[in-house]
Design brief:
Number of helices: 4
Largest sheet: 2 strands, antiparallel
Structural class: mainly alpha
Strand order of the largest sheet: 1-2
Order of helices and strands: HHHHEE
Number of strands: 2
Distance between the termini: 62 Å
Helix content: 55-70%
Radius of gyration: 24 Å
Strand content: 5-15%
Length: 135
């Protein structure tokens, strides 16, 4: 156990399952996520508390003047976890879908003017505008 760092096994799958449950119950918010995580995975929450206490002890014990980061509380860790996974599981797919709809709409509009959009996202991550007559 180097520097009190705790690793929770299968954290990604646990959080994803918890998000699915909260979305199904239409109760997906930060406070509900933290309460559900504490209730469903008490051992993992206890590990976060243990890590925090270990770091607080090391922080208070530091008398040599070496820079030691201030420990983050377990609730703040869960809050950050919620925000990261909310972006990854909820916001990012919405952004991707909106971009696909926009490109589809632009293909229809540009097709009226004898142009075509070629998808070159594999190589450059961009779209290329091509004149149908000239290719």
């Amino acid at each position: 156990m180097a520097y009190g760092k705790i690793y929770i096994n299968d954290l990604g799958s646990k959080v994803t399952a918890l998000f699915d449950e909260l979305q199904a119950s239409k109760n997906l918010n930060e406070k509900a996520f933290i309460a559900a995580f504490k209730e469903k995975y008490p051992k993992d929450y206890d590990l976060l508390v243990y890590e925090w206490e270990f770091k607080v002890h090391a922080f208070k014990k530091n008398k040599k003047g070496h820079p030691v980061p201030h420990p983050i509380r377990p609730e703040k860790i869960l809050s950050n976890m919620f925000r990261n996974y909310y972006y990854k599981l909820v916001t990012k797919p919405k952004i991707k879908k909106a971009k696909e709809n926009y490109v589809l709409r632009m293909k229809c509009e540009i097709g009226k003017y004898w142009y075509k959009i070629r998808d070159d996202t594999e190589h450059s991550g961009k779209y290329i505008l091509v004149n149908k007559e000239d290719r």
